[in-house]
Amino acid sequence: MSTTTLRDASVRVRQAIVASILLYFALIIYAGTANDVTARIAADILFGLVAIGIGGLLFRGSRQDFSALTAAGLCLVVGGLAQLAWVALDDVVLDLASTVAVFTGVLLYIYAIWIAE
Fold first, then answer.
1. Residue 105 · residue 55 · CB < 8 Å
2. pTM of the model
3. What domain range includes position 105?
4. How far is residue 95 from each of residues 44, 67, 90, 102, measured CA to CA in Å?
5. 63-105 pLDDT tens trace
6. What is the DSSP secondary-structure string of 68-95?
7. Measured between alpha carbons, how far is 110 from 93 in angstroms, rounded to an integer?
8. For residue 117, what pLDDT is reported?
9. Alpha-carbon distance 44 to 19, whole Å?
10. Cβ atoms of residues 94 and 82 within 8 Å
11. Domain count for the chain
């Protein structure tokens, strides 16, 4: 089973992922220090989009119908969608769902890469 979908992604895709993550952290730091609500909302939206993008790559790149990599991708996509819904609706349940789904997706990805491989 090959679980190298993020490593097999094009250089441009990997650069976009890294740039998005760095921008996310920059927005979080700025929003926290400047107490800027707009920057915080932008960071939350970017977080959801990054989770959807990475999850889609993992889900699409999974070579098995049901594997830890497929589940990781699905969890990240669901978490990203929940994040965007939380930004739009400001519902604490969606915030919790997003956190749990993304955390689960990251753990499943780690499992798929380091243990299941």
1. yes
2. 0.86
3. 5-115
4. 10, 26, 8, 11
5. 777 888 899 999 999 999 999 999 999 999 999 999 999 999 9
6. HHHHHHHHHHHHHHHHHHHHHH--HHHH
7. 26
8. 63
9. 15
10. yes
11. 1
